[in-house]
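Structural prep section.
Before we set up the soaks we want a predicted structure of the protein with magnesium ion in place, mainly to decide which crystallisation condition to try first. Input record follows.
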Amino acid sequence: MALRDRVNRADRTPSEPDDLITRYRDRLLEEIDLDELARLAPAQRRARLERILGSLLSIEGPVMSSRERSQLIQRIVDDSLGLGVLEPLLADETVTEIMVNGPNDVFVERGGRLERVPTTFSSMEHLYQTIDRIVSTVNRRVDESSPMVDARLPTGERVNVIIPPLALDGPTLTIRRFPTPFRLADLIGKGTLDDHLALLLGACVRAKLNILVTGGTGSGKTTFLNALSGLIPDDERIVTIEDAAELSLQQEHVVRLESRPANVEGVGLVAIRDLVRNSLRMRPDRIIVGEVRGGETLDMLQAMNTGHEGSLTTVHANSATDALGRLETLASMSELELPIDTIRDQINSALDLVIHLDRGADGVRRVAEVQALVSHRREDYRVEQVSRFVQDDLVLERTVTGRFVHQPLPDDLRARLLRAGEAVPAAFGAVTR
Ligand SMILES: Nc1ncnc2c1ncn2[C@@H]1O[C@H](COP(=O)(O)OP(=O)(O)OP(=O)(O)O)[C@@H](O)[C@H]1O
Ligand SMILES: [Mg+2]
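Run finished without errors. Recording the C-alpha cells verbatim:
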C-alpha cells in the first residue's frame, strides 16, 4: 500500500482550486501515455502535458479567464512533473536550499538567509504524494519501516526526507540545490577568503599538502572542498568518496564513488571506509573524502600517510583546534582500537593544514582561520596560525566588516612549498622563524 493511502484522510483540507488541481491532475494521468512521455526530453514533456491539459479543460473544464486557465495549467503540470509545487522554487537560481516542515511551512535559503515562502501543499496527502514521487525516482522508498531517506536526485540536488513517527510534526523534506559549483575565485568574490589566501591554498594543493576543511553544519565545507579540488592539476587521477555525491569536479580524470546504505533486510551496506580501502587499490593520485564521520577517519589518515599525499577531506567541528580532537575521537571509532598516542602520531604525520569556516552574522561564509599543524610524532598537537579573519566590532545589525590577517608560514611548510617548486605568496612573509 502506498504511503499516501495510509495517510489520515482527516488531514486533508481541500479548497476549491485545489480540488480542480486534483481532479485535472488525475484526468491528465488518465489521458497520457506514460511510456511515450518518458521518451520525451523534459521541455517537450512539459509542452505535451500543457497541450493535453489545455484541450481537456476546453472540453470539460469550468468557465474561467485565460489568465486563470494558464495559471491552473501551470500548477497542474508543475504538480505532475518532478517536484510539484516546489518546481518554481527549484527554478529560482537564487534559492540554495528548500525546507518543507509539513504542508503549510515552506522555507528557503537565499544568499545565506532563511525566509518563509508562500508555497503550500493542499494537504498532508499532497505532501506525501510529492515525497513518494521524489524518492521513487531514485528507487528508494520512505515509509514507517524506513522513515529516513537521504538521496541524490538525477538532476544533482540532495534530498533528505524524514517522516513521522521520527519527525514529530509531520513529514519533513530538505532539498539542497547545487548551482554551478563555486570556484575558489568565486569564493573570493563572496568574501569567503582573500586573494592572498587563495594564492597560498593553490600552492598548498599543488604541493600535495593534506588538507582538512572544518566548520559547523552548512558552513560551506563541501563547497570549499570542491573549490580546493578545482586546484588539483589536470594530469592527476582523483578518486572522490562520498555518502551522497555532492562534489562536482571539473577535471577529466575523476572517479566518483558513493557509499550505499543497507537495504530493508539490513544487508548490502557499503560504507565510506570500504570505499577508502578500495580506492587505495585504484592507483589514485588524490583521494577526496566528502566528510569523515566515523571509523573511516583512521583509513583516511593511513591513506594520507602511505603515499597518498594531497588528500582532502572535511569534518564537522567548531574550531580548527577542536577539529583535531574530533579527528582523534572519530579515528578511535575504528575497530582497530589503536592507543590514543598512536592515533595522535597518525594525525601529526598526516595532516598539514586545517581550514576552518564560519558563517558570519551577515550570512557570509568565511575562512575564520587557517592553522598549520606543526607537531610531530606522538607530541601534543601544536598549531601555528597562518590566516584568520579579524572582525570589526558589529556596527549595524547583520553587517560584518573586518579583514583577513596573514602570518609568515611555519618553516616546514615553507620548505615543502619551495621543494615542490611553488612560490610562497608575499603576504605569508619571507621571515624565517
Ligand atoms: N562560500 C560560500 N559563499 C556563499 N554560499 C556558500 C558558500 N559556501 C557554501 N555556500 C552555500 O551554502 C550552502 C551549504 O554549503 P555546503 O553544502 O558547502 O555546506 P556544508 O558545511 O558542507 O554543509 P553540511 O554540514 O550540511 O555538510 C549551499 O547552498 C552552498 O551553495
Ligand atoms: Mg557538506
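Observations: The longest helix spans residues 42-60.
Flagged for discussion at group meeting.
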